[in-house]
């Protein structure tokens, strides 16, 4: 997504080699995602239905067609990077195809988010970092057609996402354009109770923790928060550690590329799972 930040500080990212080493470690230490060794009935069911579920409806075929269109779109747009930036793209003039290549969630993860939202029965969803709108479309197309509020900082990218939503006839998405530091607090003041929150908007430690704390005010015990790229950099790993150990979190799951936290009161002790996906 659009990774917002104050532009003058350089983020220390892990190298592809470092990430590969961490990933190998994760594969060896994670529980197998088949639910064995998981004693919580809720987590067992979640792994079975959300993580390992298989559904691929007509809307997914349509969304994947949009992905192909974006990957083939050589139109250039103006991108003023507000976030931790892209590791591979530095110019402010970028081709839509290059943005699609570097920032779109893969089918595997986008459809996982779709299944999680569906399993969760989420009615109000917030996404920080719309990017080109594919993940948003996956979240918005679950059977109960939730209200999806998606935040994007870059005007040209927001416009491009809006045309994807139009093409898919998804009318249950509200796209909020502007800097998160202004748009998010204003939105939260309207007292929305949030069921599912996907944070893919700023891959830095302080802002990520701040979004978590702000959104916490609008959460309830069945709210689920999903954080993208938790092992992307030392900063993100620190943010993830801080979030999963927060006193309000009762359940956390590390899927390597994403981290999930919940606040369910029926977990009497804090539980943390590393699950292979």
Describe the structure.
The protein is of the alpha/beta class and 277 residues long. Helices cover 41% and strands 16% of the residues. It is built from ten helices and ten strands. The strands form two sheets. An eight-stranded mixed sheet has the order 5-4-3-6-7-9-8-10, sandwiched between helices. Strand 4, helix 7 and strand 5 form a beta-alpha-beta unit. Helix 9 runs parallel beside helix 10. The longest helix has 14 residues. The chain is globular and about 50 Å long. The N terminus is likely disordered.
Descriptive keywords:
globular; single chain; 16% strand; 10 helices; eight-stranded mixed β-sheet; two-stranded antiparallel sheet; 277 residues; disordered N terminus; alpha/beta
Structural class: alpha/beta
Describe the biggest sheet?
8 strands, mixed
Amino-to-carboxy terminus distance: 21 Å
Low-confidence stretches: 1-8
Can you list the strand order of the major beta sheet?
Answer: 5-4-3-6-7-9-8-10
- Kindly report the average pLDDT value: 89
- Rg, Cα atoms, Å: 18 Å
Query: How many helix segments?
Result: 10
Structural shape: globular
Q: Strand content of the residues, in percent?
A: 15-25%
Element pattern in H and E: HHHEEHHEHEHEHEHEHEEE
Total strands: the figure is 10
């Amino acid at each position: 997504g659009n990774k917002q930040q104050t532009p003058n500080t350089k983020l220390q990212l892990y190298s592809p080699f470092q990430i590969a080493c961490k990933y190998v470690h994760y594969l060896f230490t994670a529980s197998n995602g088949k639910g064995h060794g998981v004693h919580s009935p809720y987590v067992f069911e979640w792994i079975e239905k959300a993580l390992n579920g298989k559904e691929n409806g007509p809307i997914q075929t349509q969304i994947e067609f949009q992905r192909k269109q974006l990957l083939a779109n050589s139109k250039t747009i103006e991108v003023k990077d507000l976030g931790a930036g892209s590791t591979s793209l530095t110019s402010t003039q970028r081709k839509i195809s290059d943005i699609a290549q570097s920032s779109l969630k893969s089918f595997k993860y986008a459809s996982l988010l779709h299944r999680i939202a569906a399993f969760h029965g989420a009615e109000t969803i917030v996404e920080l970092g719309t990017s080109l709108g594919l993940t948003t479309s996956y979240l918005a197309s679950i059977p109960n057609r939730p209200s999806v509020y998606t935040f994007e900082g870059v005007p040209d990218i927001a416009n491009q996402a809006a045309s994807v939503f139009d093409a898919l006839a998804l009318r249950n998405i509200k796209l909020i354009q502007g800097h998160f530091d202004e748009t998010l607090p204003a939105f939260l003041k309207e007292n929305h109770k949030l069921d599912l929150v996907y944070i893919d908007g700023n891959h830095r430690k302080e802002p990520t923790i701040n979004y978590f704390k702000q959104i916490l005010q609008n959460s309830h015990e069945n709210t689920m928060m999903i954080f993208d790229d938790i092992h992307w950099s030392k900063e993100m790993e620190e943010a993830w550690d801080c979030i999963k150990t927060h006193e309000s979190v009762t359940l956390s799951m590390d899927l390597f590329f994403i981290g999930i936290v919940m606040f369910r009161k029926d977990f009497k002790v804090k539980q943390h799972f590393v699950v292979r996906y």
